[in-house]
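To the wet lab folks,

You asked to see what we're planning to order before we commit. Fair enough. Below is the target structure as tokens, and below that is the sequence we designed to fit it. If anything looks off to you, flag it before the synthesis order goes out.
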């Protein structure tokens, strides 16, 4: 499928299989026409920052919005600072399926794959050291 996006130099790549899986979920929820995938980061986890994804129909003027494989992707500017260039894939294996984020900005990542640290991450809490589960990651 063709990738269409707004004029932006920042971007997160969504694989075709991830877009298909997300599209099925949006269809099941009945919000495919009104919502998009919002990708964000927030403080926390053993790496200092955590990835997050949700479906959102309330876009902000500062959000970057573009379309890949028929899926709209929305990212706020602060999150884009930490995850620009990341890719989101859907992995299905014997242990089960799930979404996986590969972030080229991550200097280190928790074993759970949900938290990470970049050169720009604040040096607070678990980011200063410790592994998964040592500082409240819970993954």
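Sequence we intend to order:
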């Amino acid at each position: 499928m063709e990738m269409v996006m707004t004029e932006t130099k920042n971007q997160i790549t969504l694989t075709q299989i991830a877009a298909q899986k997300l599209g099925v979920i949006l269809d099941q929820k009945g919000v495919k026409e009104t919502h998009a995938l919002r990708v964000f980061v927030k403080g926390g986890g053993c790496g200092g920052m955590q990835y997050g994804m949700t479906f959102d129909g309330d876009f902000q003027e500062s959000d970057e919005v573009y379309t890949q494989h028929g899926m709209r992707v929305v990212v706020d500017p602060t999150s884009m600072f930490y995850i620009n260039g990341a890719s989101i894939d859907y992995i299905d294996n014997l242990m089960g399926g799930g979404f996986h984020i590969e972030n080229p900005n991550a200097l280190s990542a928790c074993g759970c794959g949900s938290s990470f640290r970049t050169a720009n991450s604040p040096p607070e809490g678990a980011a200063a050291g410790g592994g998964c589960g040592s500082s409240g990651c819970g993954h």
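Structural context that might help your review: The chain has one domain: 13-125. The domain at 13-125 is CATH 2.60.300.12 (Hypothetical Protein Aq_1857; Chain: A;).

Thanks,
Computational group
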